[in-house]
């Protein structure tokens, strides 16, 4: 059976919800793994799981996991992370072709670096709201678009 889809560019709110869903999923999995593996590693002199070392290690490893998870999922046959699938979003190059791993890797890295600096992420959010193709700075730099796919009636 051939499914036909109507394609529209994804709104800021759909994209935000998909990112939040992915973050909750990844943070939960990563926290569980870290909590289970923490007793195997060395502890700080205070014995606190969230000592400076663990705090830096935890968030550094989390960002690496987030970048790899996003890059692998977006460059897969699904063209979307789990959160994007729930929100019926897909990512393509600006010529509507499947995105590759390295393009997704660079796009996600740009997004996370911009997210760390709150002042630089605000214009990117506004770009998604006001630009015709709903692209953020990371989308423009990597020539990607995020679309909503819905079945035609």
Summarize the structure.
This protein has 6 helices and 3 strands, in the order βαααβαααβ. The protein is mainly α.
Features:
153 residues; mainly alpha; 3-stranded antiparallel β-sheet; 6 helices; 3 strands
Describe the structure.
The longest helix has 26 residues, at 12-37. This protein has a 3-stranded antiparallel sheet. The two termini are 14 Å apart. With 153 residues, it is mainly alpha-helical. It contains 6 helices and 3 strands, in the order E-H-H-H-E-H-H-H-E. The chain has helices at 12-37, 52-74, 82-86, 101-116, 118-130, 137-142, and strands at residues 5-9, 89-93, 144-151. The chain has one domain.
Order of helices and strands: EHHHEHHHE
Shape: globular
Number of domains: 1
Radius of gyration: 18 Å
Tally of alpha and pi helices: 6
The helix-and-strand class reads mainly alpha
Task: Summarize the helices and strands and which ones pair or pack.
Layout: E1 5-9, H1 12-37, H2 52-74, H3 82-86, E2 89-93, H4 101-116, H5 118-130, H6 137-142, E3 144-151
Helix pairs in contact: 1-2, 2-4, 4-5
